[in-house]
Amino acid sequence: MKNTTPKEIDFNTSELTIDWKDGERSTFPLEMLRRRCPCAECRRIRATRPEHLVMKSRDIVLLSWSKMGFYGLKLNWSDGHDTGIYTYDFLRGAGDAGKEYPVAP
Ligand SMILES: [Zn+2]
User: Fold this and answer.
1) 36 CA from centroid of ligand 1 (Å)
2) What is 6-96's CATH number, 2.170.150.70, 3.30.2020.30, 3.80.30.20, 3.40.50.1000?
3) How far is the CA of 43 from the centre of ligand 1 (A)?
């Protein structure tokens, strides 16, 4: 079981980086994170109109993040979208998977 406690979280206009407590680092392209947004609305869009999200995600940047308890991160995007909670379990798994990011549960 990998450690899923973040030590440092940082981001710029293209990537979010998490340094985990066990010393590993995961880097996530923002476009990927937005495309994989786990909120109910985005999951519905992915299921019915996947092209809609892909086009939109290119111009969207991250403004801020906040911790949700001990289990995940809430990301606040430049288009006002902030309902997706990315669990650390998902992020840790996605970072380790390299380019082949799993879909958020
Ligand atoms: Zn969403």
Assistant:
1) 8
2) 3.30.2020.30
3) 7
In the reported structure, the alpha carbon of residue 105 is separated from the centroid of ligand 1 by a whole-number distance in angstroms of 13
| Strands of the sheet with 62-68, listed across from one edge | 62-68, 72-77, 85-87
pLDDT tens readout for residues 72-101 = 999 999 989 999 999 999 898 875 554 444
pTM (two decimals): 0.81
Average pLDDT over residues 15-26: 92
**d(C-alpha 74, C-alpha 98), whole Å:** 22
Helix %, strand %, coil % of the chain (to 5): 30, 30, 40
User: 39 pLDDT band (50/70/90 cuts)?
Assistant: very high
